[in-house]
Amino acid sequence: QVQLQESGPGLVKPSETLSLTCTISGDSVSTNGYYWSWIRQPPGKGLEWIGYVHYSGRTSFNPSLKSHISISADTSKNQFSLKLSSVTTADTAVYYCASDSAPNRWFLWGQGTLVTVSS
Amino acid sequence: EIVLTQSPGTLSLSPGDRATLSCRASQSVSISLAWYQKKPGQAPRLLIYDTWNRAGGIPDRFSGSGSGTDFTLTISRLAPEDFAVYYCQQYGSSPYTFGQGTKLEIK
Fold it and tell me: Which of A38, A75, A105, B92 is least enclosed by beta carbons within 10 angstroms?
């Protein structure tokens, strides 16, 4: 059974970089055809797609965040990662990693991790 | 960016009732629409994709319909575990966007 698990700091200071990792078990980040995505939900608000990395290394990002994001895959650790730079309090959210054979919908999800941006 | 508007914001029904949730897109997404169920403290669960296809393991009391800009999620007979927040999501064009959610609560 494939599982995803997010990890990373729960507290980040404004203007710093938020870094999260999603560890994949039961499958490989190199699995042909799969997309590995990040989605977030600020407290009391709706869901927002952040971006994805394809097994080939190709990426796509939400234009509203594009200048601040990088998403990459580490095949040696079977993980993929999100980096969001110059964070503000508006970036406080539960961050989910997710996956599917399509780039734009998500069947498999991690449990989510709350990241608070505060000084 | 395509904006999705869900209605109603809150739906109060009883177990055994039929639930009808609506999602309207600001421009056509063809049939590129999904529905998710979300419970507090849990990750979203994909219910429906491509407007009417049920995801793996989803009971057949869940069904989707529509095309273009107007979509519906129907739950034929509500089970106690169905009370949650439901989100529609479009992938007709990037960025992929979600509606604001419909809360299905027990009456």
Answer: A75
